[in-house]
Predict the 3D structure of the following.
Amino acid sequence: MRITVTARHCEIDDALREQAVELIEKIAKLVRRAQRAEVVFDNDHKQKVVEFQLYVPRGGPHVSTAEAHDFRTALDRAADKLRNQLDKLETPASRRTAVGQK
């Protein structure tokens, strides 16, 4: 999977970049065959904004955005939102087949 980390109107340190990559790698394991992911850091009028975009085959991109006063908090919030989106994708029928029931 290809991961792109972008900073718009700001600069981020290497530790924050590595944390973003680790988070998106963990989240990508929740879906089958994730193709690419993008993490965008943006400084928007004194608010720090983080956006995750996760691209999977047979479906549009999964996008989550969060704002906070610092990037680490926004990163965690955006990651939680993306996890919640992916958890909702799993239907009861897919859970039964995963367990081996019909």
The domain at 2-99 is CATH 3.30.160.100 (Double Stranded RNA Binding Domain). The longest strand covers residues 36-44. The chain has a mean pLDDT of 87.
